[in-house]
Amino acid sequence: MWTRKAAFTFGGGISLVLIGMMITNHQMMILGLALIAFIVVNSWLSGHGDIEVQRTLSADNLYKGDDLYVELLVVNRSHRRTQLIEVYDNVPHEMKLRSGLNQMRLNLAPNESARIRYVLRCPLRGHYNIGPVSVRYRNTFNLNVNEMKINHHSDIVIFPQVKDVEEAFLRSRTPKMYTGATTLRTPGQGSEFYSLREYVPGDPFKNINWKAFARTGELMINEKCRDAVTDVYILFDTREISRIGTVLKNPLEMGAVSAASLASYFLQRRDSVALCTYGTKLSYLPPDTGDKQYFKILSALAGASSKGRMPLQAVTNSVSGRFSRGSPVFIISSCEGDGTVPAAVRDLVGRGHEVTVLSPSSIDFEKLTTRIPRLDYEVLKIERQNRLTTLAGSGASVIDWMPDMDLSQALMQVRGY
Amino acid sequence: MAGEVAPQSDVDQTGGSKTLHLKTLRKSWQILALQIIATVSLVWMYMIIVSTYVVDSIDHTILFETLDSFGLDNPLGDFLTGSKGSGLAKFFVPLLLGLTLGGGMALLAFQSQKVQQRIKLGFILVLIVGLVGRTLLSWLGGMLFQWEIRAPNNNEIEMLQWPLMMILSLLIMTIYLLPIIAGTRGIWGLSKQAIAWSIGFTLLFLGIHAVLTFPTIMGQLGTYGDTLSTLDTQIGEATIGLFGFDLISREQLSLVLIAVLIMSFQESAFAVIRYLEYAYRLPESCKRDPEYVKQMDNSLNGHLRHTIGFLALTAVATMIALGFHSVLLDIVETTTGSQWAAQVSESIELRLTYGLVISALLFLGVASVLKYLVPWQRVRALFYSVTRSDTAAETISKEDIWSQ
Fold it and tell me: Residue ranges of the domains in chain B?
């Protein structure tokens, strides 16, 4: 495609030729012809975007706030020079360039390669996609330019931040004899060795004791002691109302951080953790232990977005039947715009669950973005306090989480239960 | 950790300019070569324009002589104005002065604001003192010694003549040398505006000259019009050619050169600014990155090659286009042996504008579709693949990169 410069040069050339003819002036005619000849000669050689790109990331999964190192290898596989070519790697607008640049002007010889290196800061959790690669090639004198895109994408998941949670802050109201995973002297899922037994079809191969097989000639299976674990349930409110506040500070973001931190804490204790997110629809991740569950929870939290208006009671009605008896339940919700929260909490407490409500103060988040008159603010705060008092009266431990408060600091509020 | 991206801080792997910092890049041979090409093109273009249109016709020395005839002496001196020279030599010294002034202005542009302000203020003060200093001193001194208040007398007022004539002479010289001063300031001072002024002024001059030499207008100008030099290129015999064909006359060659040199000056001068702007906008880590340095070298080398190659081709293509009608007639005459071609070649319409332009545009039209008939780039690629062993471009693994 011709550039504006080419169009002006050609138009100017034609005009000069015509005017030169009109006034019989050779200088104008020749200048015009030279301009047209310049365009003609330059059209003989154009650049091309026949390049190969390969993007390498330092990690496929990162935690919010971490740096991502990206390297884009650009190779000219053709037998021609690319001429002037601009390569631009499209990065999500949520990510910020920390070092380097995601674009480069190149002039690659045949089979020559170049590397574009840059570092991205990932300030927001989520599922992201880097790419495609935009290519713009032009000739030396910028007379023609063409654009194209190379569909080369890299997926990346930014997990919410995981903060350290001190054990003392999560002490149970009725102290358990053993916290975390406790081995029982019965065979089952666990980590410690219990005994050897003969192989039964259906047993996983990873449990075969190959040394015993070599010794006896029969397939033997390692049996493990069953770990007695606590099932922890986290109910995470992702309704539209949880978007109140700034992009970085809002109930949804803080809730994601707290859910990830709690999950990490309990999974490290080898407890089973279940996650239930609700907004437009209910998403339930059954309780499980281990790194795989941890990854699943973080992935689910990374993809959480504020949508919908599903009430908490609809959630508890749907999933509370699957909860283990007496297991702790964490409800992470601002408790705004949902009149069913007290009933749902009462229902859970009535079923014998130890309910903790971690409630980011949405009024204070709103105050970060909009100016609320003092009187209105006071009234709203009193309304919120009343709501939380009602929940506490229903038998739940309630944490009023202010925007400037650290998670550990917030959890201190339940100390002493 | 991001700041520790090892390859970006390693600047010793490349040859040529080590970093893309402006201080280093401005001294790289490619940038200097482009600036020199632009300067040479500018001076050459100016000399051809001057020799074609100005010398002994409307040059500055004629103006100074006219002023002399009114009894107004030129305070600049004949050596500086080139009045004692003949022909193009009249412009040698003024040209040097113009280049020096343009260079000085470029140098001034790179000084700090404070220094610039001081120099400008100093210049204005010198100008004021030079203009009215002697008159004021004489007048005020006279009033003080004679102890009377009076208006300046004739002798004191006459003291203003020399500075006024000096300013007038400088103004005349500046107008004549404006393309050179602005062009040099633009090339070395990296000013797009100055380059545009230089090209604009040149084109404006050519345009005004073209209009004034239009026969009807020239007739209206009477004796004044007679001094303007016109180009009788329509009747000039073609003596310069290629491949055995006489294509253009010597006068036409000058005009082709003017056109090509304007393009050469414009492309080289703007390219320098464009590349330096790009380098300036790069973040610090990229300026030190060998990959960016290497690609900048590639781009600059490519630009130099294309500036020389394509502009030479443009000149050749224009020459062929201008003489294409004679080439066609020669071919027809040689192949058919008929009298028709000889008769047509005598036709004034053919050798005048219409025939010439139509045949030239016909040639350029054919040349523009040549790329579809002869795929140059593929031929070049074939040549490359035959002459060079195909080294596989590197491929990398993730471990390779992040272990560096």
Answer: 57-228
CB atoms within 10 A of CB A218: 9
Q: Does the structure show a pLDDT above 80 at A177?
A: no
Report how far residue A167's alpha carbon sits from residue A309's, in angstroms, rounded to the nearest whole number. 34
Cα torsion angle, A95, A100, A104, A110, sign: negative
Q: How far is CA A292 from the centre of its chain?
A: 17
Q: How is B176-210 classified by DSSP, letter by letter?
A: HHHHHHHHHHHHHHT-HHHHHHHHHHHHHHHHHHH
Instruction: Please judge whether A100 and B307 are an interchain contact, meaning their C-beta atoms are less than 8 angstroms apart.
Output: no
Which letter does DSSP use for residue A320 in this model?
G
- The CA distance from B314 to B318, in Å, is 6
How confident is the model over B229-241, as pLDDT tens digits? 776 545 567 777 7
B310 part of contact set with chain A, CB < 8 Å: yes
Helix, strand, coil distribution of chain A in percent, nearest 5: 35, 30, 35
Residue B76 is classified by DSSP as: T
**Which tens digit of pLDDT belongs to each residue from A15-54?**
999 988 888 788 888 899 999 999 999 988 888 888 999 9
ipTM of the complex: 0.83
Residue A116's closest chain B neighbor by CA? Answer: B291
Nearest CA in chain B to A53: B395
Q: Cβ B5–A76 below 8 Å, yes or no?
A: no
Classify strands A231-237 and A328-332 as parallel, antiparallel or unpaired: parallel
Comparing CB atoms, the residue among A28, A44, A98 nearest residue B371 is A44
CA B385 vs. chain centroid, Å, equals: 39
Nearest to A29 among B211, B353, B402 (CB): B353
Q: Using the beta-carbon criterion (under 8 Å), do B258 and A37 form an inter-chain contact?
A: no
Do the chains contact at A27 and B295, CB–CB below 8 Å? no
